[in-house]
Amino acid sequence: MSDSNKDAVLEIKDIFKSFGDLEVLKGINLEVKRGEVVAVIGPSGGGKSTLLRCATTLEKVDFGKIVIGGDVLCEDIDGHCRYCDKKLEKQIRSKFGLVFQNFNLFPHFSVRRNITEALIHVHKKSKAEADIICDELLLKMDLVEKADAYPCNLSGGQQQRVSIARALATNPEIIFFDEPTSALDPELTKGVLTVIRELAEEKMTMVIVTHEMSFARDVADRIIFMDGGVIVEEGPAYELVSNPKQERTKAFLAGY
């Protein structure tokens, strides 16, 4: 399965998702082009994290179509949402990285092993190759001296930078961030946002769920405002934050 839009790394078309009687996503459409940074903002419970979980195969949608890196993850066929086979799903998973708000590092692995584990066991790199990739990323994240440390010996900001290094290690086409600084104090937040800002300058394709409005305004190309399971408003980042059109967006941004 492939898709014709070569520019789009991510295409989400009319997706719906319910948990029991609670409809969380109500027909979401989103396209992210190569090199684009999209920030997703909105109140808690608005569907932002569920959207990310559906895009990264952690949840299955009820209806709709998702295309990642040109491969169709799922689409509606004969009134049902059909997912691709396990082999293609594994291939699609290798195209994205995911950074969680609570780090999700393996506590019993060193920093180096947290970064190299998937490279060796999933992507079949040799240990030498994996170590070279790891060393480059540790340098980029300013963590060279922490290679043999364990997560419990790191600050929250350092743990999150390890998570970002792990997401980058497989050279993904797109990285998803789910509120990457929500578990951090302001000082540590700054370091993590600096790393993401540098990735944006390098034209890394990213979707970032965030409550950091000034960061979203300055770093994202585009902002999506979600509430009640729908996209209420979207537009160029600076414009949407400075001059929102919808009353609901204005009310939300007035709190920042």
**Multimer state:** single chain
Largest sheet, order of strands side by side? 7-8-9-3-10-11
Shape: globular
Secondary structure tally, helices: 9
3D structure, described in words:
The longest helix has 16 residues. Helix 3 crosses helix 4 and helix 5 packs parallel to helix 6. This protein is globular. The strands form two sheets. Strands 7-8-9-3-10-11 form a six-stranded mixed sheet, with helices on both faces. The protein has a five-stranded antiparallel sheet with strand order 2-1-4-5-6. It contains nine helices and eleven strands. The chain has 256 residues and is of the alpha/beta class.
Short descriptors:
alpha/beta, 36% helix, 256 residues, six-stranded mixed beta sheet, globular
Short recap of the structure:
The chain is α/β, with parallel strands linked by helices. The protein has helices spanning 48-55, 86-93, 111-121, 127-140, 156-169, 186-201, 213-219, 237-242, 247-253, and strands spanning 8-19, 22-33, 37-41, 63-68, 71-77, 80-83, 96-99, 174-178, 206-209, 222-227, 230-236.
